[in-house]
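Researcher: Please predict.
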Amino acid sequence: MSGICQDRVVIITGAGGGLGAAYAKVFAQEGAKVVVNDINQEAAQSVVDEIKANGGEAIVNTSDITNYADSENAVKQAVETFGDLHVVVNNAGICRDRMFASMTEAEWDAVIAVHLKGHFCISSHAVHYWRDQKKAGNEVNARIINTSSGAGLNGSVGQSNYAAAKGGIASLTLNQSAELGRYGITANGLAPAARTGMTEDVFADMMKKPEDGFDYYAPENVASIVVWLGSEASKVVTGRIFEVEGGKISIADGWRSTGGIDKGARWEPSEVGGAVDKLLSEEVPPQKVYGA
């Protein structure tokens, strides 16, 4: 019996461990051919070896996702090895947590590069490939799956660099969805909660694996929706950010304009305070910033 991603070719960044490794393994279980991208070649090889031992197909790629030229090699390797490309899962990430008043330029730049630029590089080369396929008259049923975060959607104390990058990724996903549908490409994002190297360091007690019963924070819980989004079955779903935690799937509802107050003329500066007070009294309160 074939899986829901039978013979689809998938690149997953940061797939040497954590969520990315779980995605790679479940994609392979569902019949996909997987390019396991990670700068740690040994970790990536371990994931590939496990996939192959279980009868799946996978290869290692060590392209630097923050380097535009090098990231093209991931796309080339996928096409040269497996004959096509259908899905890019942008998963790789790092943290350099610091309160904003103490954050260094290097800490800011590193997080923005890996998360935000990293989401651009391989996706850009993949989109060029898919656009060329479409122009050549070939059917394209492609997927970009991005990784945002609750920090990006709501903010997170001590993570202004990470929150800014993840908020940017959510907005990028909306733009990709609006622009790329004409080529047969969907774009969706995730805000996952799961046990990874990063979360175990910060939330060790909460993320601890239980001795028995449902493993609430197992990365495989998130992998299920990622693999479905990568399948042909998700064709009509695009421009969404899914929050996934344990057995719960929800959609993050983005910024929306309220009804507002229209004076029909220019507001005098002294009048604005009263208008803002009225707007605030009528608003649906936003979710709190994490850690506030």
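Model: Residues 243 and 250 are 5 Å apart (CA to CA).
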